[in-house]
Write a structure and sequence with these properties.
Keywords: Bacterial flagellum, Bacterial flagellum biogenesis, Bacterial flagellum protein export, Cell membrane, Cell projection, Cilium, Flagellum, Membrane, Protein transport, Transmembrane, Transmembrane helix, Transport. With about 240 residues, this protein is mainly alpha-helical. The chain contains 9 helices and no strands. Helix 3 runs antiparallel to helix 4, helix 3 packs parallel to helix 7 and helix 6 packs across helix 7.
């Protein structure tokens, strides 16, 4: 009984002096968003970052073109997928750098300094991203999704993001396949020439791809192939 009374007295003495940490998630305080809300927003952004990277940047076009280039060379796993994905990631970030700076200037910094609320920050952040996506979206795809979405014939800037995103992705795939076709042609010619030579020499059992691979690599290195491919990607995405 005595230990119980002593413990109760100790809790009574310590309890009033102990302060529990408070959690403030107000959207817009007197001097901007609370630290707790900023942490929540950052964690949420990190969780959806892979999806945003695929949907809102040129990552899809870049990784498809790089994969087609690897297949055209006849290389099955070189460079590895991790290398292609990493190169595509940093190229996408490089291309989007001006847009990211604009978003930070017009939306993120004003919101962190309490100049605008969360809804205004979202609208301001969406505008430069949407403008960049529209500049890289074909009119046919945009009109298709606008029509299916019952938005009729409207100006591209009036089309919702739910129609802009899929139209943008289809346009990226279209551009990637065009670039891939141009890349594939010279290597296809090498394969045909090597195959014809082997058949004329009666070397039926020797795989043509095994013989043509060194010539493909030599041609690719001589014309500085990776630089040409990256340049084509940078030019195709404004």
């Amino acid at each position: 009984m005595a230990p119980t009374l002593a413990g109760t007295a100790l809790l009574a003495a310590v309890g009033p002096a102990t302060k529990l940490p408070s959690l403030n998630i107000s959207l817009h305080g007197s001097s901007g968003p609370s630290e707790s809300l900023i942490i929540i927003l950052v964690l949420t952004l990190l969780s959806v970052a892979p999806s945003l990277l695929i949907l809102l940047t040129g990552f899809v076009q870049i990784v498809v073109v790089l994969s087609i280039t690897r297949n055209a060379l006849g290389l099955q796993a070189t460079p590895p997928n991790q290398v292609l994905a990493g190169l595509a990631l940093f190229l996408a970030i490089f291309i989007m750098a001006p847009t990211i700076k604009t978003v930070d200037h017009v939306a993120i910094q004003p919101y962190l300094h309490g100049q605008i609320n969360a809804v205004q920050a979202y609208d301001k952040a969406q505008t430069p991203i949407k403008e960049w996506m529209l500049s890289n979206t074909r009119t046919q795809e945009l009109a298709l999704f606008a029509q299916v979405n019952h938005q009729g014939t409207v100006a591209p800037t009036k089309v919702g993001m739910d129609a802009v995103i899929p139209a943008f992705l289809l346009s990226e795939l279209h551009s990637a396949f065009i670039i891939g076709f141009i890349i594939f042609l010279p290597f296809l010619v090498i394969d045909l020439v090597v195959s014809s030579i082997l058949m004329s020499l009666g070397m039926m059992m020797l795989p043509p791809t095994l013989v043509s691979l060194p010539f493909k690599l030599l041609l690719f290195v001589m014309v500085n192939g990776w630089t040409l491919v990256v340049h084509a990607l940078l030019v195709s995405m404004k």
